Task: inverse folding
């Protein structure tokens, strides 16, 4: 039942629990208890709303910053990641494979704000060797949701 609940709420965390129970063929109380258990076990870590900021008129810049580090003795990657994710500006930190060690996701109001964070805070950490900043210019799909509107056919219909 856990996997089915997680599959449903990952796509729509606002699903009505009574409807979810009916779809799963179980009692609503069982669904509520299972959700509470998964929250307590930190399987479910939060509920979020996906917003298309381009449509709001509010300026927002998202950057993906690749970070190469030298893990400190007795600190490892986990301790370095903790130092990075404790900054309130940081939305996400991932340990990655490839030429860099971490992918850090930031949101700010301007490119300058992001650049200032990278140069003043991130790059100055002892274990950080280098960074590479990539700005997201347009989101086409995010968290499984298509963000781009399909192009409208602007051709004129010609009737013979």
Result:
């Amino acid at each position: 039942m856990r996997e089915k609940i997680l599959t449903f709420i990952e796509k729509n965390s606002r699903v009505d629990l009574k409807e979810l129970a009916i779809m799963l063929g179980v009692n609503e109380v069982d669904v509520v208890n299972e959700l509470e258990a998964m929250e307590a076990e930190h399987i479910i870590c939060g509920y979020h709303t996906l917003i298309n900021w381009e449509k709001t008129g509010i300026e927002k810049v998202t950057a993906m910053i690749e970070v190469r580090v030298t893990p400190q003795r007795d600190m490892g990657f986990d301790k370095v990641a903790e130092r990075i994710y404790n900054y309130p500006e940081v939305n996400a930190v991932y340990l990655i494979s490839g030429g860099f060690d971490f992918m850090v996701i930031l949101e700010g109001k301007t490119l300058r704000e992001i650049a200032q964070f990278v140069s003043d805070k991130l790059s100055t950490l002892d274990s950080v060797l280098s960074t590479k900043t990539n700005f997201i210019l347009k989101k086409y799909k995010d968290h499984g949701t298509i963000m781009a509107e399909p192009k409208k056919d602007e051709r004129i219909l010609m009737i013979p």
